[in-house]
Structure formats: C-alpha cells, structure tokens
Write a structure and sequence with these properties.
With 254 residues, this protein is an alpha/beta fold. The chain folds into two domains: 134 residues, Rossmann fold (3-Layer(aba) Sandwich); 72 residues, no CATH class. The protein is 33% helix and 28% strand. A hairpin with a 2-residue loop joins β8 and β9. The longest helix has 16 residues. The protein is globular.
Length: 254
C-alpha cells in the first residue's frame, strides 16, 4: 500500500504536483490518466524517491523515509523512457533481482528461476539470450516489464507500460497486472488509452494541472463528468453484449 499526503513536487523551481493526497491500496490496479503535462509521470517519480525537494508524506507499506535499498525491496518502478544497454534479455531481467542480493552479490539458483519465470510470463523466454538492441520496441518493452516483475515487490509503478505493444499484448498485460493485484499487491499504471484504463483497472486517478480532478472506480470517474472537462472531449459509455462497457470519445460538436 502507498499512502500519499499533501504531496508537492516538480523540477527545479517549476511546481507540477499541487498537494496530492490519496491511497494506492493493496489488491487494487489503479490507472493514472490525464492530459499531457498533468503530472502523471511526476507522481510516479516522486513516489519512487527519484525527485529532489519533494514535500509532503509518502508511506510505502506503512513506512516513511526508507533508504533506496529498503524502498527497492518494497516498490518496483518502470519509467517511460529506458536505455538499451548492450546486454541480453536474461541479463536485464536478472537486474530486477539486485535488491534481493546479499553479499557477495551473486545470483542464486532461485534468482535465476524467478527471472526465467518472468521472461516466460511476458512471452519473451525464447528471446532470453538475444541482445536488447536486436529486439523490436514491443519485445524490449516486454523484457523491461519482466524485469520489473522479477523484482517481486509488493508495490509496482509502471509509466506507459502498454507503449509499443499490439492490442492483444496490451490486453494480456492488463490481465497479468490484474492477476498481480488479485494477489494483494498495489499497482499503478500511467495510461493514455482511456478506454483501456476504464475497462481494465479497478480505480482511476484523473489528474489535471497537477491536481486530482477525480479518483474512484471507473464508473464513478465516468459519471463525474471530469473526463470530458479534463480532455475537452465528449465521452460516451457503451454497454457490451454479455456485460461490461466500452467508452467512446469524440470532439465536441461545433
């Protein structure tokens, strides 16, 4: 669980987040949505302890002021932009086990088993010995997701994890994240696909200009009317045969 109280953060003298308070609960998959520049990525970075000068309180599993090592055992963070090091997919995924290594820092058979399982979960085990620069953008995305999964943290923050993935892979990823939440973990994902966010997540956090416009179940956020206000679009909820809903978006009529 991640508890956030009166969080203010930004870059240098530029303030982005303005006094955010919320709780990312265990067992819940939360979508973070909002217009460009609304503070979505900044929120994840602030919670992950990557921004200086953050004000307010962030408690991870009830504890505040964790060291980077302690935080890495409790929270995995996958940023939006990532390098492409000259290593194999297996080596990258093993990096997710680094917070768990004792001294001397050598991977155990268990670490290697967990890494293999993560590669398999995201469908890239056949690419384990391939170098990252030989993979497609979507394949690299899956490898990085496997690395975050291999970290085996209670809390998982993912910034645009569906970028570069085809629609089937997006749905499979969201299903896998839902399964992790069902195991009692707290997950938050930044998504630009509003329909995917509203269909696949338990809760939706809508940000605009560094503030919370709405936070609740997808149905609550939809009914609040704040999606239309934040994005300047018309939103329509469509009932699907057999249950469930899809959401359509269009520009307002002239």
């Amino acid at each position: 669980m991640i508890e956030i109280q009166n969080l203010c953060a930004g870059y240098g003298e530029t303030a982005v987040l303005q006094g955010l308070s919320l709780c990312l609960a265990d067992g819940c998959l939360t979508a973070i949505v909002g217009p460009n520049g609304s503070g979505k990525s900044t929120l994840l970075k602030a919670v992950a302890g990557l921004l200086p000068g953050v004000r307010g309180q962030v408690r991870v599993d009830g504890t505040q002021g964790l060291s980077s090592q302690q935080l890495a055992l409790r929270l995995a963070y996958l940023p939006q932009s990532r390098p492409v090091p000259a290593i194999t997919a297996r080596s990258l995924v093993l990096h997710g086990r680094f917070p768990h290594l004792g001294y001397p820092r050598r991977y155990t058979a268990e670490d290697r088993r967990i890494a293999e399982a993560a590669l398999e979960r995201f469908g890239v085990l056949p690419l384990a010995d391939a170098f990252l620069d030989s993979l497609s953008g979507g394949e690299r995305q899956k490898v990085y997701l496997a690395m975050a999964f291999a970290q085996d943290a209670q809390n998982l923050l993912l910034d645009e994890p569906t970028a570069g993935l085809d629609i089937r892979c997006q749905l499979e990823l969201m299903q896998a994240l839902g399964q992790l939440a069902a195991q009692g973990r707290a997950l938050a994902v930044v998504l630009h696909d509003l329909d995917l966010a509203l269909q696949a997540c338990h809760r939706v956090l809508l940000l605009s200009q560094g503030r919370i416009l709405a936070y609740g179940t997808p149905e609550e956020v939809y009914r609040s009317g704040m999606l239309a206000r934040a994005f300047g679009v018309q939103v329509e909820r469509l009932s699907l045969p057999g249950g469930g809903a899809a959401y359509a978006f269009r520009l307002p009529s002239p």
